[in-house]
Amino acid sequence: MTKINELLQQRARAFDEFKALAEKSSLTEAEQAEYETKKRAVTDFDAQIARAKEMQTLSVSTAQPVEGQDNPPAKAPATVESDRYVKERSLVIGAAAKMMAYGGGNLFNARQAAIEVYGERHPVTRALVASTGPAGGFILPPDYMNEIIELLRPAAVVRGSNPRVIPMPRGTMTLPGQASPATASYGSEGQQIASSQQTLKQIVASFKKLTALVPISNDLMRYADPAIDAMVRDDLVEVIALREDLAFLLGDGTQAAPMGFTGFANAWAVSLGGTAGVWSATADSTAAVNGSAGNPLLGQNGGNFITSNESYTETTVVNELTGMINRLDTANVPDRRRVWFMHPRTYNYLFGLLNSLGLYVFRDELSRGTLYGYPFKKTTQIPINIWDTSGTNKDCSFIILAEMNETMILDSMSLEIAVSREGTYTDANGNTVSAFQYDQTLIRAITEHDFQLRHDSGCSVLQFVRWAPAVQ
Q1: Beta-strand relationship, 424-426 and 407-420
Q2: Nearest CA among 464, 432, 414, 444 for reference residue 151
Q3: What is the per-residue pLDDT across 400-428, written as a single tens digit (0 to 9) for each?
Q4: Handedness of CA 35, 36, 39, 44 (dihedral sign)
Q5: 141-179+201-472: CATH homologous superfamily?
Q6: Quick check: 329 and 406 in contact, CB under 8 A?
Q7: From residue 63, how far is each of 2, 56, 57, 169, 315 by CA, in Å?
Q8: Helix (H, G, I), strand (E, B), or coil: what is residue 105?
Q9: Which of 129, 234, 256, 407 is the most exposed place for a label (fewest CB within 10 A)?
Q10: Could you tell me if 34 and 11 are in contact, meaning their C-beta atoms sit under 8 angstroms apart?
Q11: Which residues, 6 or more positions from 177, have their beta carbon under 8 angstroms from its beta carbon?
Q12: E-assigned strand segments in 247-337
């Protein structure tokens, strides 16, 4: 294992040198020769690493215990081919928690239990050996945390739509931008040239803390089969992913949460004299209203909201969808990586929509994964129970069209997992519960990030959408 780690480190250094050349827009003849040399060095290290791993795997079957050795491990070291904890290391979270339960909350006993159950060099055992924290708590090493972060991406539609992901290690970041341009004008020979000045603005991003706390019965940890490991992991990932995605889509920036697409659309309309929308599932909503169009050269189109016709027809549907595209175009938003976000009910209506000739309007294109040439994402995070402004219809929804090149997720802290058997927590009824008294294990997840658009005009929103299949 030591040799493999050393080879991996050497390979990383060789790759960095290769990458520095590969990212250049052009290479001289000498640099091209150096490029081939450094590329060959990386591939040579890959071959050495592969041979070392094969040797390690084959050595397991021929390993012999040392004479006089006491308490040999119950299991051989894990291999990538045979052990799911190596292939999917985020399972270590639940397994380590189970070992804490086996060990009665004592870290030393948990390590011994892990050695007997998994083996001395198993990822679960190594995680416990490297762990830190008082009263039996532990924080998994960063390499395991990174595995969990990646699981968020396919679970969340916004992260999965290829936005800009920017590290924000200090928890805050200032992003300077231009507020207004200079001016240019023609003049006659000898005429004084008029001066002008650009104005600047700045976006200040700051971390928003997203947390989850899961209490688990220690009896479940003691007696359940290994599937409990996956259940713990999947539950934490799901609640974190869903709450993050909801904020990115519909967040209004209050209650210490990020502002989402609809919030930025509100900000764009208000900046041009419009009215912010306030949508509710329990009372009459306030519709977002665009302001007055300003300088069209600067994309001041009044706002990017369209209000759906609640008595919809094929004609109104087509006009509203193309209108959303036009809103972005007239706001000078680049057409590079636009993505639709909608509820599955909306998608199913479009998939089955027929024109007057009995032909499907969108089915062929939707089957190819696009709508008007742009990919789409379906999510039940977008509601279908919003009231309209009079409360007459209580089944309204949204469609969002966003330019992902304008979308920024600023990550300040990767997902951190901590476990405690002696902490307390407040349950859904407001009662304070002692994990120690009720024989429970608490698993806590924390991540920190912010969500920003480079320009508030970077998305358009269709509000009060009632489109639905005839049979529901």
Answers
A1: unpaired
A2: 414
A3: 999 999 999 999 988 887 888 888 999 88
A4: negative
A5: Major capsid protein gp5 (3.30.2400.10)
A6: no
A7: 17, 10, 10, 45, 74
A8: coil
A9: 256
A10: no
A11: 200, 201, 202, 203, 454, 455
A12: 305-307
pLDDT of 398 above 90 = yes
Place of tokens 């992913």: 241
Angle, vertex CA 236, rays to CA 231 and CA 241, nearest 5: 125
- Across-strand partners of 306? 462
The type of residue at 4 is I
pLDDT value of position 135: 32
Three-state DSSP state, 323: helix
Structure tokens at 343: 């509820």
Q: Is 58 helix (H, G, I), strand (E, B) or coil?
A: helix
Dump pLDDT digits (tens) for 8-53: 778 778 887 888 888 787 888 888 888 888 888 888 888 887 887 7
Q: How far apart are the first and last CA of the chain?
A: 58
- Partners of 178 in beta bridges: 200
Residue 415, φ and ψ in degrees, nearest 5: -60, 125
Question: 22 is written with which tokens?
Answer: 């590969």
The partner residues of 200 in beta bridges, in order of sequence, read 178
| Residues in CB range of 226: below 8 A, 6 or more apart | 95
Whether the CB-CB separation of 400 and 262 falls below 8 Å is answered with yes
The pLDDT value recorded for residue 381 is 92
Q: Indicate the domain borders of the chain.
A: 1-59, 87-136, 141-179+201-472
The closest alpha carbon to 433, from 424, 420, 442, belongs to: 424
Is residue 133 within 8 A of residue 254, CB to CB? The reply is no
Sequence-distant (6+) residues with CB within 8 A of 6 are none
Residue 175 identity: L
| Predicted local distance difference test score (pLDDT) of residue 111 | 76
Phi, psi of 235 (to 5 degrees): -65, -45
DSSP letters spanning 363-400: HHHHHTTEETTEEEEE-TTS-S-B--TTSS---BEEEE
